[in-house]
Amino acid sequence: METDEVDALTGLATYNVLIEYLEDSVPAEVLYIEIDEPARFNDAFGYDTDKRILLYFCENISSLLDDELFVRIGTYSFVIAKKNPSKPGELKLLADKIINQLREPMNFDGNLLYMTAAIGIASSFYGFYSAATLVRQAEHAMKKAKREGTNRIVLCQENRGFSFEHELKLLRDIPRAIENGEIYFVYQGQYNYAQKAFTGAEMLARWEHPVLGNVPPDIFIPLAEKSGMITPLMNKTLIEVSKMYKKLEEKGFDDFSIALNLSFQVLMEESFLDNVTFLLDAYGLKGKPLTFEIMEDTIPDHLESFTARLDEVKALGFSLAVDDYGTGHTSLTYLLHFPIDYLKIDRSFVHNIHQNRRNFLLFKSIIDMADALELKVIAEGIETREDDAILQQFEGITVQGYLYCKPLRAEALLKRL
Ligand code: C2E
Ligand code: CA
Ligand code: CA
Q1: How far does residue 175's CA lie from ligand 2's centre (Å)?
Q2: Largest CB tally within 10 Å, which of 127, 222, 331, 399?
Q3: Which of 204, 269, 352, 413 to probe ligand 1 with, by most ligand atoms within 8 A of CB?
Q4: Hey, whose CA ends up nearest to atom 46 of ligand 1?
């Protein structure tokens, strides 16, 4: 094995080995575990306590494994992968064992420590996409587990009904679908409480595949990224948005803002600025109220070129939003280094906010900080009147969700305004 395929501290394999192991193997299951900040013990028990905890933890887990692959993929995160499990959810048993083991204190030089963790499990039985997607699903499930409390296990059971073969077919069909309009766009209105009106909309891609029917963007966007088709897709988005601005102007909506999703990969491409500048000129997009949304969990920890790129986008006159805020690892103070305008608070905080005190407190503290940093806030995924009633006490915010507006075709949205 190459050195970068082995983790220096634990001797475990790393992400690339995991992907290779999972590639083309159906069925497979992935358990994603993240332990909660072992470094918090360093002050009390010594500077290398986190490392010792990690090693102890790895040893304990290894003793529970048969033929599964065990890899370290982040500072405090690990993946256990199993090929050919006999039934769906087989790794759930292992997850239970791990959580039981965590309930036992660790003994460090006579000091007793309790470690906690969150576990997410994804299984190809519920639809296999690609190795990377499976790992990502498990990671999302882990984040959900984390929000539910400590030592939780969440099983990702989304069945989208797309097999591995289907995924390959989609991959081949993407270029044509962008050309011929099978991939099109819908708009979801964003409602501002203070102005009591829709002040903008987010553009979302849809794919009506002739054989496979409706393919959700969560499936085809990662495929487009993988196959190099994501830039052509963004180009098409910009051309479509220019048409939308024309329609809006005809109806007298001059400062209605439109947000589009920008994948990190496209943003960082060498040719991104030239490409966008060209389209701006060609399609009369200069000076239009356009926002680019970037998903929080794709934002890197330390990358000067990223900040520089954001500055360049701002210089073109556009706004920037951090999407799905609260699902990644960034802190608001870290975000302060970026020239951003909007925070889109992830829908997991909004969901059931009228009953979930913890979500309410988290939401409120995000708003307080956003206010202090002069960031505008959009709350996502608002579905019920009860949640709406709670959110309305935050007067300055904008909301986006099925309660106010489902994603609609351009014409349908224009009628709603
Ligand atoms: P996102 O940017 O977080 O978009 C919001 C998603 O939440 C949309 O799903 C929307 O339909 C859904 N949503 C809106 N209101 C509600 C609600 O009240 N409840 C619930 N449960 N869901 C709600 P959609 O359209 O399936 O898009 C999924 C993701 O795909 C988007 O998440 C975005 O990350 C990505 N995506 C969509 N279109 C594009 C695109 O053109 N380019 C890129 N790069 N990514 C895109
Ligand atoms: Ca978005
Ligand atoms: Ca979002």
Answers
A1: 23
A2: 399
A3: 204
A4: 261
Asked if 344 contacts 322 with a C-beta cutoff of 8 angstroms, the reply is: yes
Looking at the CA of 189, which ligand is closest? 1
Nearest CA to ligand 1 atom 32: 218
Query: Which residues lie at CB < 5 A from ion ligand 2?
Result: 261, 293, 323
User: What are residue 261's DSSP bridge partners?
Assistant: 293
CA 71 to CA 15: how far, in whole Å? 7
Q: pTM above 0.70?
A: yes
Enumerate residues lining ligand 1, CB below 6 A: 188, 204-205, 216-218, 221, 237, 261, 263, 295, 323-324, 347, 381-383, 401-402, 407
Q: How many residues are given for the chain? A: 417
Intra-chain end-to-end CA distance of the chain, in Å: 59
**Distance from the alpha carbon of residue 189 to the mean position of ligand 3, in angstroms:** 13
Contact at 8 Å (CB) between 390 and 354?
A: yes
* The listed CATH number (3.20.20.450, 3.40.1190.20, 3.30.70.20, 3.40.640.10) that belongs to domain 165-416: 3.20.20.450
User: Going by CA atoms, what residue is nearest to atom 8 of ligand 1?
Assistant: 204
Considering the domain delimited by 3-156, tell me its CATH architecture.
2-Layer Sandwich (3.30)
Helices (H) and strands (E) in the chain, counts: 16, 16
User: pLDDT truncated to tens, each residue of the chain (417 aa)?
Assistant: 445 789 999 999 998 899 888 876 667 899 999 999 888 888 888 889 899 999 999 999 999 999 899 999 998 999 999 988 877 778 999 999 999 999 888 887 888 888 999 999 998 776 656 787 788 889 988 988 988 889 999 988 765 556 667 888 899 999 999 999 999 999 999 999 999 999 999 999 999 988 888 888 988 998 898 888 999 999 999 999 999 999 999 999 989 999 999 998 899 998 999 999 999 999 999 999 999 999 987 887 667 888 899 999 999 999 999 999 987 767 776 777 889 999 999 998 998 899 988 889 999 999 999 998 899 999 999 999 999 999 999 999 999 999 999 999 999 999 999
Nearest residue by C-alpha to atom 17 in ligand 1: 381
Residues with CB in 5 Å of ion ligand 3:
323-324, 380
CA atoms within 13 Å, Cβ hemisphere of 294: 22
